[in-house]
Amino acid sequence: MSDASTAHTAQPPNPRVKRTHVTAWAMWDWGSAAFNAVMITFVFGTYLASDAFGADDRGTSWLAAGNAIAGVVIALTAPVIGQRADRDGRRSLWLGVNTALVILTTAACFFVQPDESFLLLGVILLSAGNVFFEFAEVQYNAMMVKISSPSTIGRISGLGWGAGYLGGIFLLLLVYVGFIGGDSHWFGIADDDAMNIRVVALFAACWFLIFALPVVIVMRTRKGATEPKEPQAERVSIAQSYRQLLGTIANLWKHERNTFWFLVSSAVFRDGVGAVFAYGAILGTTVYGVDPGDILFFGIGANVVAAAGAFLGGLFDDRFGPKRIIVVSLLGLVLSAAIVFVQDGTVAFWIWGLFLCFFVGPVQSSSRAFLGRLTSHQTAGEIYGLYATTGRSVSFLTPALIALFVGLSGESRMMVPAILLVLVAGLILLWPVSDPKTSASERRK
């Protein structure tokens, strides 16, 4: 059975945190916006959902199906991927391999022409990229445990999340100015055959490559200090890895109940938090009268305040503990969402919508830091794999409630109470979980 019970706080003191390692690590988050913000959310995913690939919303439905399949693959495999990296001590190698696969699938999207016959190719490439990205993120999150100390893990996690938000803003502005907005584009690229959109895929791939290289190079050249190597670690089969994973889950339930319930509660509230960005633009345009041409600017503002929240939350995390930051942020989300629900008009949406987004960053960064304090670098890959799996396992929750609430009422505004319900449920589940920084009761026995 793989041992998931050694807390970060119980490890021998880490070497002094080196800024070069932290900077290189955060640059990966900055570069990853090329896939999350550009390919999945704002540019290429929207392109595949357009009428160019079928006038019957075929692109949207195929994308949803592809994402669902990718989610199942991630849920079933992420913990074992992390576990095997823990065993062979080659975390930076597997981060590099999976990042390279994300970059390749992103660049290959250039060949997706605006025709129904290319829809399947586009969906396969984005879905495969999503799987590889999650595999890379498992290694990336686990690496944070090694480059931080118990007194700095919160701010380092916040730095990464904030860099990701800011990187997304900067890249979206570059892409908009260079290839989407206006009548002429950089390098003389025309709109024919959606060439300007397809070139964005190449631009995004190069962006991610440039900013992902530093962490792979720095961590692989850090001799003997970064990657935990198990001497003569026994190689095990895939089947044995799954048996060990089941043993780890059973061990969490029997002996590490605090970690178990944090994984459950964080899966629920992270689903609600993710819905804030996923459905915010839809709410703004359909309910609160935001001009569709202005929604990109709201997205930029939302990322700016979320980045500020992540930075500040990280600093307070190290001082007061991650649970307090998550609880306060969830309460802020609930209050802001409730005010958004009862208000009308564009101005109210801008004000309280941005307040809402401010609390998203601290929840995400402190959740990652919370789990980092509950594990060690020897088991971080498997635990962060479980973190990905639990998140995927309840990813249907908010969309299902939104579909139910909106379907019964016929009003898009009812998205808000559906999201509120998930956030409150996550907060209730989190309430009895002990904070690994401030509570002595969480220490391993």
Counting DSSP H or I runs of 4 or more residues, the number of helices is 16
The CATH topology of the largest domain? Growth Hormone, Chain: A
Structural class: mainly alpha
Give the total of beta strands.
0
Strand proportion, as a percent range, falls in: under 5%
Mean pLDDT: 81
Instruction: Please identify which CATH superfamily of the largest domain we are dealing with.
Output: MFS general substrate transporter like domains
Domain count, please report it.
Answer: 2
The stretches of 5 or more residues where confidence is low (pLDDT under 50) are 1-14, 223-232, 440-445
3D shape: globular
Oligomer: single chain
- What composes the largest sheet? none
Could you tell me how far the N terminus lies from the C terminus, measured between alpha carbons in angstroms? 17 Å
Order of helices and strands: HHHHHHHHHHHHHHHH
Radius of gyration: 21 Å
> How much helicity do the residues have?
over 70%
CATH architecture label of the largest domain: Up-down Bundle
CATH class group of the largest domain: Mainly Alpha
Main attributes of the structure:
Growth Hormone, Chain: A; 73% helix; single chain; disordered C terminus; 445 residues; mainly alpha; 16 helices; globular
Per-chain topology:
Layout: H1 19-42, H2 44-48, H3 58-88, H4 91-108, H5 119-147, H6 153-180, H7 195-220, H8 238-255, H9 257-286, H10 295-320, H11 322-342, H12 346-358, H13 360-373, H14 380-393, H15 397-409, H16 415-430
Helix pairs in contact: 1-5, 1-6, 1-7, 3-5, 3-8, 3-14, 4-5, 4-7, 5-13, 5-14, 6-7, 6-10, 6-13, 8-9, 9-10, 9-12, 9-13, 9-14, 9-16, 10-11, 10-12, 10-13, 11-12, 11-13, 11-16, 15-16
